[in-house]
From TrEMBL:
<keyword id="KW-0472">Membrane</keyword>
<dbReference type="InterPro" id="IPR023352">
    <property type="entry name" value="MAPEG-like_dom_sf"/>
</dbReference>
<dbReference type="Pfam" id="PF01124">
    <property type="entry name" value="MAPEG"/>
</dbReference>
<keyword id="KW-0812">Transmembrane</keyword>
<dbReference type="InterPro" id="IPR001129">
    <property type="entry name" value="Membr-assoc_MAPEG"/>
</dbReference>
<feature type="transmembrane region" description="Helical">
    <location>
        <begin position="90"/>
        <end position="109"/>
    </location>
</feature>
<keyword id="KW-1133">Transmembrane helix</keyword>
<protein>
    <recommendedName>
        <fullName>MAPEG family protein</fullName>
    </recommendedName>
</protein>
<feature type="transmembrane region" description="Helical">
    <location>
        <begin position="116"/>
        <end position="133"/>
    </location>
</feature>
<feature type="transmembrane region" description="Helical">
    <location>
        <begin position="6"/>
        <end position="26"/>
    </location>
</feature>
<dbReference type="GO" id="GO:0016020">
    <property type="term" value="C:membrane"/>
</dbReference>
<feature type="transmembrane region" description="Helical">
    <location>
        <begin position="64"/>
        <end position="84"/>
    </location>
</feature>
């Protein structure tokens, strides 16, 4: 396997983060223009949460910096510890796919139980990835 292949899921996650960031920007600027909200009126997170009612893209953007931090670190560990095999790569791609689904749901129709299922599925893939890495490191 090409040693760089383990970083392709990271590239996909960065792409997803960019798409969600662009969505957040479009939604926020659109609402600020439509509702005539001055930028200084949303200078703090408390002010923003009180004035900006369309927050699903922003909520998702923040979420992309929670569990994915462990994902990115796991890919680095896999690469440096020579644990970037087919199983590790498969778990990494499974995490990415579930995050794409989670983001699509949250930035789209935002049905909580659908989003929760995608989130839990991704979390389980991530924990399996770390179990794989842990057993490989301790072997």
């Amino acid at each position: 396997m090409d040693s760089r292949a383990i970083f392709l899921p990271a590239l996909a996650m960065v792409g997803l983060t960019l798409v969600v960031w662009l969505r957040m920007y479009v939604v926020r600027i659109g609402q600020m223009r439509r509702d005539r909200i001055h930028p200084q009126a949303v200078a703090t997170s408390a002010q923003a949460s009180a004035r900006l009612t369309q927050s699903s893209a922003a909520d998702n953007f923040r979420n992309l910096f929670e569990l994915p931090v462990l994902f990115y670190l796991g890919l680095i560990v896999a690469a440096f510890a020579n644990l970037a095999d087919a199983l590790t790569l498969g778990l990494a791609w499974l995490f990415v796919i579930t995050r794409i689904v989670h983001s699509a749901i949250q930035c789209g129709y935002n049905k909580v139980m659908h989003r929760f299922f995608a989130y839990v599925s991704g979390a389980l893939a991530l924990w399996a990835l770390w179990i794989r890495l842990g057993t490989g490191l301790l072997a």
